[in-house]
Amino acid sequence: MTGRRAADGGPGGPDPAPVRMVAWVHGHVQGVGFRWWTRSRALELGLVGYAANKADGRVHVVAEGPRRACLQLVDLLRGGDGPGTVELVVDSWEPARGDLTGFRER
């Protein structure tokens, strides 16, 4: 085993129940390709969901899939390597609803 516990979805472990991660991304994140960038990262991680511009300048990101992949997406959102300038990411978590397909820009 590579240091990951089986309960975390490590080798030989069961797939953990999928989660829904909801993130509100604050900063200069509209008109700079941020939703496209987020969609690309989410698809690379095997997530479903969407990234949507909001009237107040934030981007609303909803992603479902394995907890580890959702955590990676949140880290990427906060990481500063994407387009624009992220000032703050506020995330919340709940069980997956299973009502999403693909990953879309809204």
TrEMBL record:
Keyword list, A-Z: Hydrolase
Catalytic residues (UniProt): 35, 53
Gene3D superfamilies given in the database record: 3.30.70.100
UniProt-listed InterPro entries: Acylphosphatase, Acylphosphatase-like_dom, Acylphosphatase-like_dom_sf, Acylphosphatase_CS
Catalyzed reaction equations: an acyl phosphate + H2O = a carboxylate + phosphate + H(+)
Similarity comment: Belongs to the acylphosphatase family.
UniProt protein name: Acylphosphatase
UniProt domain Acylphosphatase-like: residue ranges: 20-106
Superkingdom per UniProt: Bacteria
Organism field: Dietzia cercidiphylli
Enzyme Commission number, as recorded: 3.6.1.7
